[in-house]
Amino acid sequence: MALIITDECINCDVCEPECPNGAITQGDEIYEIDPDLCTECVGHYDTSQCVEVCPVDCIPKDPEHEETQEELYAKYQRITGEE
């Protein structure tokens, strides 16, 4: 499933540059993750890079966007154009 940034975000700016899919952007109040671009770093890394660098642990899985590893990998393939 895609990830989501909660309102515990302190806008520290460390997650945005870590996202290989460009899924993280600055929202009105806090950073936001586009679920159409978030693959939890499947295809790029073994772990979600934004979660790894977040100092306040505010990036859980988004229950509104449940996806299997296979679905995340298929999304990665669509985003990157890899077969």
Provide a descriptive summary of the structure in words.
This protein starts with 23 loop residues before the first strand and ends with a helix. It is an alpha+beta fold and 83 residues long. The relative contact order is 0.28. The chain has one domain: Alpha-Beta Plaits (2-Layer Sandwich). The model has no long low-confidence stretch (mean pLDDT 96). Helices cover 20% and strands 7% of the residues. A two-stranded antiparallel ribbon has the order 1-2. Residues 1-29, 31-64 form the 4Fe-4S ferredoxin-type domain.
What ranges have pLDDT less than 50 throughout 5 or more consecutive residues? none
> What radius of gyration results from the CA coordinates?
12 Å
Largest sheet: 2 strands, antiparallel
Query: What portion of the residues fall into strands of 2 or more residues?
Result: 5-15%
The CATH topology turns out to be Alpha-Beta Plaits
Q: Based on DSSP secondary structure assignment, what is the total number of beta strands?
A: 2
Give the end-to-end Cα distance, rounded to a whole number of Å.
21 Å
Helical amount among residues, as a percent range?
10-25%
In DSSP terms (H or I, runs of 4 or more residues), the helix count works out at 2
| CATH class call | Alpha Beta
Structural class: alpha+beta
Gross CATH architecture: 2-Layer Sandwich
Broad shape: globular
- Tally of individual domains: 1
Average pLDDT for all residues:
96
Secondary-structure element string: EEHH
Spatial strand sequence of the major β-sheet: 1-2
GO molecular function: 4 iron, 4 sulfur cluster binding; metal ion binding
Domain 4Fe-4S ferredoxin-type: 1-29, 31-64
Pfam families: Fer4_7
Keywords: 4Fe-4S, Electron transport, Iron, Iron-sulfur, Metal-binding, Repeat, Transport
